Amino acid sequence: MNHPLRVVIVGGVAAGPKVASKVIRLCPEAEVTIVEKGKLLSYAGCGLPYYVSGVVKDQKELMCTPVGAVRDSVFFQHVKNVKVLNETEAMEVDRASRRVRVRDLLRGQESWLNYDKLVLATGAKPVVPPIPGTDLCNVFTLQGVHDAEGIRAAVAQDTARDVVIVGGGLIGVEITEALVQRGCRVTIVEMMPQILRILDPDIVRLVGQHMESHGVRVLTNTKLERIEGEESVKAVQTSGGRIAADMVVLAIGVRPNVALAEAANLEIGPTRAIKVNDRMQTSDPNIYAAGDCVECNDLMTGKPCFVPLDSTANKQGRVAAVNLCGGEDHFPGVLGSTVCKVFDFCVARTGLGESAAKDQGYDVVTAWAPAPDKAHFMPEAKLLMLKLIADRKTRKLLGVQAVGPGAGDKRIDVVAMALMAGMTVDQLANADLCYAPPFAPAMDNIITAANIVRNKIDGYMDGITPAEVHQMLEEKRDFTFLDVRSPQEYEQVRLPGSMLIPLGSLRGRLGELLKEKEVVTFCKISLRGYEAALILKAAGFNSVRVMDGGVAMWPFPKLV
């Protein structure tokens, strides 16, 4: 090669700028050009809901480095030595000649850019349903800063108070909180049976309950049919009826933006995203792709998946840059590690959920572990509810989900690393994790969850989920629903159909229970429920189960 390495990057939001920055670090003499259709560069798209809410005060904060430098075209040119063509669209890739045709959207002029290596970082685009009314004023998606500005302006001008969010995924849930914080009345309309489909239904019930406690109306199994209004939104018509609204946010999801790749005859995977190898190369070895336009390898199933996240885009961008500069790096895939804030709840997950694990043929065993996220005597301790999933036969970890005001993210991260290492519940149960009362309990939440799984696998404990107990109550099954909390706790809140025998009195009151009848024990978090079950089994009760998660994880109505 008689000239410096020429790298053209299509896309300038997440993966693209990461590729550019790493290429310049590895090959300072390289000629790097970013082609970006929009005006803004390298902004934190995942921060848009927090800009809408006002937590982030200025849009420039989404585009700044940690030291406050705005990542605009001047920054990339002068600091990174990267040429930026923003408000410029890539129209065509000529693979044979290794060049890209681009159009200046302001002037209408077209030109060709030659490349040695091309990177497609074209991202994803929001799904807009083919229904009437999506073009009305105050109908938004949340693709970029301009959408967030529009939503903020509508709220500030008091033209948006009743808001319908269409879609209950991560974007829908996060923008819901933002709008509630701005004083809006929010209804989520979700076509599927539950919001947050990345979570198991029992965890979602707890999330939904929490959202409703903040005034959010959640409608599932409800399809949007049309948006009504003349110039601006007045209402939406759904399969369940008409809902008055002066703003609609379409948060149905995103699709990978693969038009340029398809036109260039690059291979598209089964997820309809660009297929790449673990070096981030497409079917053309001189063309790389990274970010929300590519499909990933699911590390738990070995199957292709589409998981659009800024964190993944940045890692993939670095891998692509190393390889196109002649180095060697590999992106193995993803576990689907995800976290979101739902008011004061941390909601997170990694690995396989319960149903997904069963679909993969595992003999699934789960642990429900609600407990304080720090030593219980610390005033800042908060409740964290975990659901750990493992395989009974191999004792292998499969996944975990977390919900609650406690620090769930760090427990998810611990399990993510354990999954990467292929650990068993026994190995996790003895992991040497940090302990000090201000930071964690002596037996960390995730270690407790691992031990619950071990108890179940080893036959010390038989569990039953709150949903199964609720169904037994609905069917008026003949069983004893035994609450072993204190009388004071029982007076504050109790579960329907339950009877109270405090744990300290149980050995002396066994005669009040029928041995031939099934007994389901529980307490606040079911630790005392587990101890009660052991007492009953030792006394000759043959059918005893512990309700997973206790009162803390009961998502159905309680008696107060």
Summarize the structure.
The chain is an alpha/beta fold and 560 residues long. Helices cover 26% and strands 25% of the residues.
- CATH top-level class of the largest domain: Alpha Beta
Outline, from the CA principal axes?
A: globular
Which strand-content bin applies to the residues?
A: 25-35%
Q: Which fold name corresponds to the CATH topology of the largest domain?
A: FAD/NAD(P)-binding domain
Proportion of helical residues: 25-40%
Mean pLDDT over the full residue set: 96
Q: From the 3D coordinates, which CATH architecture of the largest domain would you assign?
A: 3-Layer(bba) Sandwich
C-alpha Rg, in Å? 27 Å
Distance between the termini: 77 Å
- The total domain count is 4
Largest sheet: 5 strands, parallel
The unreliable regions are none
User: Oligomeric status of the shown chains?
Assistant: single chain
Total strand segments: 30
* Secondary-structure content class: alpha/beta
With strands numbered from the N-terminus, the spatial order across the biggest sheet is: 3-2-1-7-18
CATH superfamily of the largest domain: FAD/NAD(P)-binding domain
